[in-house]
Amino acid sequence: MVERDLGDTDLLTLTAIMSKKINRWVDITGNLSYERELQLGQKSDVNWEIGVKEPVLFRYRRWMEEGLEFEGNFNFGTDPKLEAVPGVYMHIKGENVLKLGIGAGLTEKADDITFKVTFLHGFGKAFKNAFKFNGKER
């Protein structure tokens, strides 16, 4: 994924996403990201995210969920960055989700406030079927 921030810097971001449903409705997610500026390797950063989401109201569970994420980096001693991002997940069609959130920085290094819009596409069924043999998971 290539993103552009307001400072007009191109970034290359690689993210590993790990997700686990605790019960039928609550989902916990952990992400590890590596980010590098594309202008002759100016700087790189390794980040983490952990979050939980659940339906806003049981009646609307199929199309809207609420969540809370915490994001940070691994520079705990020298330059820590920590941000809290409450958000809303709206299921559009199939496995497509639009995530909207407003983040608040909890440390000096983090931005005071951020607005986040993310489009997610799940490959769950196709990926899960690739690991089946005779109808059983490998």
List keywords for this structure.
138 residues; mainly beta; 8-stranded antiparallel sheet; two-stranded antiparallel ribbon; 10 strands
Structure description:
The chain has 138 residues and is mostly beta strands. It has one domain. It has 1 helix and 10 strands, in the order E-E-E-E-E-E-E-E-H-E-E. It has an 8-stranded antiparallel beta sheet, with no helix packed on it. Strands 9-10 form a two-stranded antiparallel ribbon. The two termini are 30 Å apart.
Largest beta-sheet characterization: 8 strands, antiparallel
**Straight-line N-to-C gap:** 30 Å
Percent of sequence in beta strands = over 45%
Oligomer, anyone?
single chain
Number of helices: 1
Number of strands: 10
- Find the structural class using helix and strand composition: mainly beta
The shape, in one word, is globular
* Element-level helix/strand string: EEEEEEEEHEE
Estimated helix fraction:
under 10%
Average pLDDT for all residues: 78
User: What does the radius of gyration come to?
Assistant: 17 Å
Strand order of the largest sheet: 1-2-3-4-5-6-7-8
Uncertain residue segments = none
The tally of domains stands at: 1
Summarize the topology.
Blueprint: E1 2-4, E2 10-21, E3 27-37, E4 44-55, E5 64-73, E6 82-91, E7 96-105, E8 113-121, H1 124-130, E9 132-133, E10 136-137
Quick summary:
The protein is mainly beta.
